[in-house]
Specification:
single chain; about 160 residues; alpha+beta; OB fold (Dihydrolipoamide Acetyltransferase, E2P); 2 domains; five-stranded mixed beta barrel; 4 helices; 7 strands; globular
Length: about 160
């Protein structure tokens, strides 16, 4: 005996086929960014504080973390480019940052924690701009300070003996 399938059955078969062959792809794509995200403790060492003073070379507003790059002169006189991680763009915007808060050429002092592997990667807690404004990075390794941007007086609260790179 020979069965005849109509157009509706062919459409349903095609839909089931697409669901099983292509359905997992959108799920995989949606969880890929989460898998790339990391905790502060997994990548950075809170016991390796840094004070990086230098010139911003680039700012990137992207998820899961905004970041900027800063040229710092090391103890030998060599210029080293540091990759400095911040919070997500959404968190930064809620804390009062604007997309032009840091621009290439800006002189900054960054209080941060260094990457565990000793690379030129840091997680910022706060950034002090050349005009004295302190911009809090909102990153998971930073402290929770209510005000995002504030003007500091002549004594900017820098700690003596901090490691400057």
């Amino acid at each position: 005996m020979h069965s005849h399938r109509g157009p509706v059955q062919h459409l349903l078969t095609a839909l089931v086929f697409l669901l099983f062959t292509c359905g997992p792809v959108p799920v995989w794509i949606s969880i890929a960014p989460a898998a790339a995200h990391h905790s502060f403790a997994a990548e950075y060492d809170a016991n390796k504080p840094l004070a990086l003073k230098g010139v911003v070379t680039k700012m990137e507003w992207m998820n899961p973390h905004a970041r900027f790059y800063v040229d710092v002169t090391d103890e030998t006189g060599k210029i080293v480019n540091w990759n400095v991680e911040l919070a997500s763009p959404n968190v930064l915007l809620r804390q009062g940052w604007t997309r032009d808060a840091l621009k290439p050429g800006d002189l900054v002092l960054v209080e941060a924690s260094q990457a565990k592997d000793g690379s030129n990667l840091a997680n910022a807690q706060r950034v002090t701009l050349s005009d004295g404004r302190r911009v809090f990075a909102g990153s998971s390794g930073g402290d929770a300070i209510g005000s995002a941007i504030r003007k500091e007086g002549p004594n900017d609260g820098s700690k003596d003996g901090s490691k400057e790179k």
